[in-house]
Structure to design on (163 residues):
């Protein structure tokens, strides 16, 4: 038996670039975005951007309050979710030139083998137009950085002491 499978080519409708600066317990995350497929004269589209933190981090509430108060660029509203580990930003229009948002993340617990953070952007009126990128903490701790005693089951102190 044979099957024909038609694969649809995935297109990123937004250019997203994430720059991360690690300052110990604080991460400075600059997220830049731009539409790559819409006509610049079309102003009928809104952008939604969901930013999730790497594991062990939360968004700095004061930074978000500052963004909400001054509403940089065409930023319309900000919603904090998932115990401060996800922020959703709503923009009035999809930008046709590169725009950036600066966010600050605070590490609240040291975790070895972190999960990456992500940025997911989509057009509010046409959610088939979307893009997603992942970002990592530059000097993320490994499991030996968090193992301090033998009572933690996943810690192999012999391996950690050798390295």
């Amino acid at each position: 038996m044979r099957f024909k499978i038609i694969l649809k080519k995935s297109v990123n409708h937004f250019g997203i670039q994430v720059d991360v600066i690690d300052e110990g317990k604080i991460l400075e995350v600059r997220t830049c975005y731009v539409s790559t497929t819409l006509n610049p004269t079309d102003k009928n589209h809104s952008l939604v951007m969901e930013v999730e933190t790497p594991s062990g981090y939360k968004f700095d509430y004061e930074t978000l309050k500052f963004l909400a108060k001054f509403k940089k660029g065409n930023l319309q509203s900000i919603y904090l979710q998932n115990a401060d580990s996800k922020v959703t930003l709503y923009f009035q229009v999809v930008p046709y030139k590169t725009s950036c948002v600066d966010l600050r993340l605070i590490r609240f617990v040291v975790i070895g083998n972190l999960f990456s953070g992500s940025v997911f952007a989509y057009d509010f009126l046409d959610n088939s137009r979307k893009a997603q990128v992942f970002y990592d903490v530059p000097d993320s701790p490994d499991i030996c950085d968090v193992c301090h005693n033998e009572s933690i089951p996943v810690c192999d102190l012999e391996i950690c002491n050798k390295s």
User: Anything to note?
Assistant: Strands lie at 14-23, 26-35, 47-52, 57-59, 75-81, 86-91, 99-107, 117-123, 130-135.
